[in-house]
Amino acid sequence: MNYSGKPYPQRKSKGSGSRAAGNHSPLSARLPSEAFIGDQMAVVDPEAIYQARETLRQEIGRSLESEWRRLVEAPQDYVSEGILSQERCISRIKLLRLFEVREASTQVTGPAHDKSQRLRDLTGRVALVTGSTDGVGRVVALRLGEAGARVLVHGRDAERGIRIVADIEKAGGAATFFRADLASLAEVRRLAAAVREETSRLDMLINNAGIGTAGGVRQESADGFELRFAVNYLAGFLLTRLLLPLLEASAPARIVNVSSAGQQAIDFADVMLIRGYSGARAYCQSKLAQVMLTIDLADELAGTGVTATCLHPATYMNTTMVHRAGVTPISTVEQGAEAILNLAVSPALAGRSGLYFNGLREARAHAQVDDTEARRHLRRLSLELTGLADD
Ligand SMILES: NC(=O)c1ccc[n+]([C@@H]2O[C@H](COP(=O)([O-])OP(=O)(O)OC[C@H]3O[C@@H](n4cnc5c(N)ncnc54)[C@H](OP(=O)(O)O)[C@@H]3O)[C@@H](O)[C@H]2O)c1
Description:
By secondary structure, the protein is of the alpha/beta class. The chain has helices at residues 16-21, 34-43, 46-60, 64-73, 76-80, 86-101, 135-146, 158-170, 185-198, 227-249, 279-301, 320-324, 333-345, 372-385, and strands at 126-129, 150-155, 174-179, 204-207, 253-258, 306-312, 355-358, 361-362. The longest helix has 23 residues, at 227-249. The radius of gyration is 22 Å and the shape is globular. Residues 131, 133-137, 155-157, 181-183, 208-211, 231, 258, 260, 312-317, 319-322 line the site of NADP nicotinamide-adenine-dinucleotide phosphate.
């Protein structure tokens, strides 16, 4: 979907001004919470969102790209100008914020994956799964271990990491735990060095660690970057680049970036979200950055035998991240793990690169992914922020 529709003539909603004047409850108190947005993201059909966006565009008579910040930050303007009633303003802003966080289309473009497939024998393969001390990453690590892969388990909590290694070993597999806080680029470098020290091959790199939408207060990483951008995207960018020689030497090898359907365009004038921060916005821009990275890597790695794919694993799995956001889970971690493993090991996807999947089906990501200039911009910025531009 693109935002560059023709401008509509200015139009007023019927009777909006007088009804608005009689209602004095503060708008800000009635705007949607992240949890509300989260719930809606799960249930609102993209087509319905698109239709609602068109309606709002007509109601306010201006393009939404230029108006959204004012709509979110100063919605009372529209009420006082008589363009929207207060009630209508609230309901429209709820939808607008949905567009903001839910621009990614869930439109699937590929056939269904055959779920009856068992994981093939992975003996002799080595997989690094970041964020495998919890949630969907933990299940992916366990399943890879059961299938015979040697699993490099990663997380921040050594106790949980060691427990997962023990579970994999109990099931007959082999695993090693690596502790690293991805909120520090120095720790990412240390992790990459430790992995290179530990293994002479790497067949699968699954960049899964992440922080969710919860929390309305902007936070920074150890390096002073917006925290979700740093952990969900930049750490994976750096880790992947540092491990590329190992992956290339092990080809055919696969990189899988665990993104999300919650994607939002990156505003290159404010990547660190100094203005207009919200947890959902931070999360969604970091998830889009992962998809852009995947497409970029796929181009770069063409012909090397290393593929890069990414996905939305499943909607609202029963994980810590989802509980913290105050959202009721609607999928299981097993469903999400199945989708991640499909990209990591499915023979049907051998040699296929630059794909975005929604669960088990190929899908279309946010339109900014197709913007080559935006991808180039993100790559340049990422090289600079990680210090790789100087290497
Ligand atoms: N849950 C969903 O419905 C959903 C939907 C779409 C996409 N996803 C994506 O799926 C991935 C996994 O999510 P999940 O729901 O399984 O989350 P989760 O249960 O909260 O697990 C997140 C994992 O990432 C690790 N992690 C977080 N911050 C870290 C940091 N600073 N350094 C190192 N490790 C860190 C966590 O380690 P600790 O245990 O130390 O915190 C944990 O192992 C994420 O990338 C998420 O965006 C999830």
